[in-house]
């Protein structure tokens, strides 16, 4: 018999529409406790008995007060509640329960059956309404289904909690992935992107959702990106590790800005499909992908690439990059029928600077020079460091030789200013060889080789200048090359020889000294003068060994002459090169040589040029002071044509100034005068220095010097350089 109010039936049908069997099985709701609240003793007791008979745990309360007391002790799952009770009635109990024990379900069991009371009961939170009198099965059924529903709700709640936790966990994992994870719909619009987008590119996720991927890709990389973002394959066939750049938030034109603010990413993408049901075709719903920020790696790669193609000291391109650029420029010049210049620049006397000031200063010099050279160039030009002090320069798009010459002149002009190294002013010059495409060569190798040859040509013809390649240089070049090899062998083969030129005391009319001048008995080319091999020897550093040989031979000859009766007041003048002076043991080796041949220090005069002095004054001063302490004399050779600063005259222990022959060459007749010679003589007297005038070629010059009371002179008129064995005879015969 159905006793529930009919509308309540409809309201609770899903929960109460059970088969009876299930309702009777208390094991479904194990441990659930029911509180029976009724003011009628019999009613209370019979309901309690009935429920216990069906396996429910039961508590009984005679009224609202008692019920609330039991509720407060906790553990009540369901309450069967009478409405009409003295004291606190059912409605009040329900309100209390709704507020304080929302977890407790309430079934109203009442004789009251008005619509209002049922509505009110419902409003107060009742789960069901059972009218008295009721059939026991009815009660049992409603209690069972309420408890079951309650149990069901609880497990749904637990399940939801689990789902939420799981969702939370996955969201956490996805959002904290170091990579950007995204999904696109089938037309390429973002439907999902994780929070990483914010830290890597600066966008809020909402800014991407609904937008097309192409809005965020560097425009040069769109094609590559299409390949991955449009990926429809799955599994191992899906594209991966494709690199491109994404735009960071806030980037805008121009292009450079883009580039620096964009991030290169590597993307693994695959198509996403709906689950396949047997009867329907797979449907492509979009792309899933992982985007990794590899900017750090790219930067590292860039550094490595830079190192492969640049000189690390000057940061200039290296030979490999130069060849690459030249190759491109040649093809471009061919197409556009324009010309280009390849220049070979070699610093003059770099080795001397490097040896004297140290490698650190040498490095600093190269860096400064690289900057200066670069400042002479246009954007399209390429300057590369291809060796210690060698640079290659590519000047594309020129009209002809004059354009190239202009660049070379600009470079030379720019290098005129001294470089300050360790507080010293260092003057740097370059020998520049130029080859023009297409006339001087059409390939990389020929152009570089010919510019090198032109450089070599200027180097061996006075340095500090530029020269264009010319066909006849090939012969000179090869001659120079074989010369260099020849010099190396000449020492072993004893092909060098010393000639001696007398220095004359004009007032006494006697020989007072000899200058040792080196000659080379070349096996094929005959007797070679110093200009033909000394510059090259200096450039290659061979001069140190040659210089040692000269000093040793001059002392040996001096000793030999003495044995032949030549007076020991004849002085020996020996020319010294910069590289020799810079040798750490220079003064030691000079003194050792003197001892070896038993020659007094006062018999030796070392000739150095002003330019050598300027390169490292401090070193020169300390070395010459030690030599001077042993009596060795110092002469400044070619005085007057070098540096203008005369401060060294005070700093060095000097004995002699050798006035360059260019100052006397103007004296051709007895009426001629040379104010420079007069001035130098006056200054020398003031400084207590001796003077030797060089290059005396005629009698008028001797007469002029005598009138000035100049004591010493040297020149072809007074005596040509002669081989050693002719000297004793010459001295004896006056
Ligand atoms: P220098 O030291 O100024 O030597 C004088 C040069 O002038 C010598 O040339 C000599 O032959 C030349 N000469 C002498 N009198 C006259 C003259 O009346 N008229 C003209 N026109 N020239 C005259 P040389 O022997 O060809 O030497 C040239 C330079 O080579 C020397 O200039 C010196 O700087 C260098 N040199 C020569 N021997 C050596 C050496 O053993 N070691 C080093 N480091 N350099 C040397
Ligand atoms: Mg000399
Ligand atoms: Mg001289």
Compact summary:
The protein has 734 residues and is α/β, with parallel strands linked by helices.
What does this structure look like?
α4 packs parallel to α5, α14 (about 350-355) packs across α15 and α17 crosses α18. This protein is α/β, with parallel strands linked by helices. It has an 8-stranded mixed beta barrel with strand order 18-19-21-22-23-24-25-26, surrounded by 4 helices. The protein has a 5-stranded parallel sheet with strand order 2-1-3-4-5, sandwiched between helices. Strands 7-6-10-9-8 form a 5-stranded antiparallel sheet, sandwiched between helices. It folds into 4 domains: about 1-155, Response regulator (Rossmann fold, 3-Layer(aba) Sandwich); about 175-275 and about 280-300, Beta-Lactamase (2-Layer Sandwich), CATH 3.30.450; about 315-470, Reverse transcriptase/Diguanylate cyclase domain (Alpha-Beta Plaits, 2-Layer Sandwich), CATH 3.30.70.270; about 490-730, TIM Barrel (Alpha-Beta Barrel), CATH 3.20.20. The radius of gyration is 54 Å and the shape is rod-shaped. The structure holds ligand C2E and magnesium ion (MG) (2 copies). Ligand C2E binds near residues 518, 531, 550 and 716.
| Sheet having the most strands | 8 strands, mixed, barrel
Helical content (DSSP H or I, runs of 4+): 40-55%
User: In whole angstroms, how far apart are the ends?
Assistant: 164 Å
Spatially, the strands of the biggest sheet line up as 18-19-21-22-23-24-25-26
Q: Tell me, briefly, the overall form.
A: rod-shaped
Radius of gyration: 54 Å
Ligands bound to this protein structure: ligand C2E, magnesium ion
Strand percentage: 15-25%
Oligomer: single chain
């Amino acid at each position: 018999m159905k006793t529930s109010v009919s509308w309540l039936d409809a309201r609770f049908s899903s929960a109460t529409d059970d088969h009876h069997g299930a309702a009777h099985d208390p094991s479904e709701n194990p441990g659930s406790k029911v509180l029976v609240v009724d003011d009628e003793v019999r009613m209370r007791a019979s309901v309690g008995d009935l429920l216990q008979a069906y396996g429910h745990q039961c508590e009984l309360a005679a009224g609202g007060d008692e019920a609330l007391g039991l509720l407060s002790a906790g553990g009540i799952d369901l309450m069967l509640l009478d409405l009409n009770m003295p004291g606190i009635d059912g409605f009040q109990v329900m309100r209390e329960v709704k507020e304080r024990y929302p977890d407790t379900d309430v079934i109203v069991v009442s004789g009251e059956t008005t619509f209002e009371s049922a509505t009110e009961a419902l409003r107060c939170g009742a789960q069901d309404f059972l009218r008295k009198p009721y059939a026991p099965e009815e009660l049992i059924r409603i209690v069972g289904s309420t408890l079951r529903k309650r149990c069901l709700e609880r497990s749904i709640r637990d399940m939801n909690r689990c789902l939420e936790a799981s969702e939370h966990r996955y969201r956490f994992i996805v959002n904290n992935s170091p990579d950007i994870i995204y999904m696109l719909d089938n037309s390429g619009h973002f439907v999902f992107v994780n929070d990483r987008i914010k830290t890597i590119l600066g966008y809020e996720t909402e800014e991407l959702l609904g937008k097309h991927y192409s809005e965020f890709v560097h425009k040069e990389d769109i094609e590559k990106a299409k390949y991955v973002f449009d990926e429809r394959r799955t599994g191992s066939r899906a594209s991966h590790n494709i690199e491109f750049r994404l735009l960071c938030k806030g980037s805008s034109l121009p292009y450079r800005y883009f580039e620096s603010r964009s991030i290169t990413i590597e993307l693994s993408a695959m198509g996403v499909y709906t689950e396949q049901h047997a009867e329907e075709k797979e449907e492509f719903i979009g792309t899933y992908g992982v985007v990794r920020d590899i900017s750090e790696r790219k930067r590292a790669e860039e550094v490595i690439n830079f190192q492969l193609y640049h000189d690390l000291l000057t940061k200039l391109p290296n030979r490999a990059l130069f060849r690459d650029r030249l190759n491109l420029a040649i093809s471009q010049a061919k197409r556009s029928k324009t010309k280009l210049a390849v220049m070979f620049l070699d610093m003059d006397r770099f080795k001397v600077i490097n040896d004297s000031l140290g490698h650190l200063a040498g490095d600093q010099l190269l860096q400064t020079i690289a900057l200066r050279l670069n400042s002479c160039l246009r954007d399209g030009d390429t300057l590369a460091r291809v060796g210690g002090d060698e640079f290659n320069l590519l000047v594309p798009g020129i009209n002809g030789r004059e354009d190239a010459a202009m660049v070379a002149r600009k470079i030379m002009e720019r290098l005129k200013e001294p470089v300050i190294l360790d507080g010293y002013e260092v003057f740097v010059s370059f020998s520049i060889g130029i080859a023009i495409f297409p006339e001087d060569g059409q390939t990389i190798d020929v152009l570089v080789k010919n510019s090198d040859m032109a450089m070599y040509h200027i180097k061996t013809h006075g340095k500090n200048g530029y020269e264009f390649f010319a066909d006849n240089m090939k012969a000179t070049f090869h001659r120079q090359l074989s010369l260099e090899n020849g010099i190396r062998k000449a020492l072993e083969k004893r092909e060098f020889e010393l000639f001696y030129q007398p220095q004359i005391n004009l007032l006494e009319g006697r020989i007072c000294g000899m200058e040792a001048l080196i000659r080379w008995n070349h096996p094929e080319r005959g007797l070679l003068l110093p200009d033909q091999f000394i510059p090259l020897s200096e450039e290659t550093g061979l001069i140190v060994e040659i210089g040692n040989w000269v000093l040793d031979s001059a002392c040996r000859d001096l000793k030999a002459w003495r044995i032949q009766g030549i007076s020991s007041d004849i002085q020996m003048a020996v020319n010294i090169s910069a590289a020799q002076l810079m040798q750490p043991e220079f003064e030691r080796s000079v003194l050792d040589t003197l001892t070896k041949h038993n020659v007094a220090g006062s018999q030796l005069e070392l000739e150095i040029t002003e330019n050598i002095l300027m390169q490292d004054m401090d070193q020169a001063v300390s070395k010459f002071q030690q030599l001077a302490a042993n009596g060795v004399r110092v002469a400044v050779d070619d005085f007057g044509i070098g540096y203008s600063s005369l401060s060294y005259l005070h700093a060095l222990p000097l004995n002699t100034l050798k006035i360059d022959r260019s100052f006397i060459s103007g004296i051709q007749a007895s009426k001629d005068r040379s104010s420079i010679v007069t001035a130098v003589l006056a200054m020398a007297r003031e400084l207590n220095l001796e003077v030797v005038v060089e290059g005396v070629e005629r009698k008028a010059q001797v007469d002029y010097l005598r009138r000035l009371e100049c004591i010493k002179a040297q020149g072809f008129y007074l005596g040509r350089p002669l081989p050693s064995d002719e000297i004793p005879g010459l001295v004896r015969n006056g």
